[in-house]
Amino acid sequence: MEETPSSSGARRPSRAASAKSAKSFTSGQTGNRAVRRTVKNVVSTSSAPKPVTTSSFHGFVSVQSRGTVALPPVLRKRYGLDKPGSQVEITERSDGVLELRPAIAVPASQAWFWAESWQEGERRADADIAAGRTTTYDNVEGFMDSLDIDE
Predict the structure, then answer these.
(1) Is residue 60 included in any domain, yes or no?
(2) In a domain, 96, yes or no
(3) Which comes out higher in pLDDT, residue 151 or 147?
């Protein structure tokens, strides 16, 4: 397919190429399929960057009288929110966006592990392990000796 430069410097299909693509609409094909094929032919020859999709779902939900919002079934199943009592974390951003994140309820007896201070220690420990800052002992006595505890 021939291309001609546009005033912006981007390449676009020539008129002959566009006419050739448009011909598919008049060559006995009817309806939306022909239009989609024509648009696909023209778009696929474009050198413009393809848009980046940030999500695989877009839709609208209604807020009910008591503030209830029902998530679409496909999303509830995808994120494990299809069981009664499932929780969603909501964050209001400064730019006016409400973010929803699936959340897992943590039993009170395990909440200490998820505290920010403990998680920071976990991250430091993971970094030490990844960097090879570990020591292996052959027995308990060797470990105890390394602690330098005065008896």
Answers:
(1) no
(2) no
(3) 147
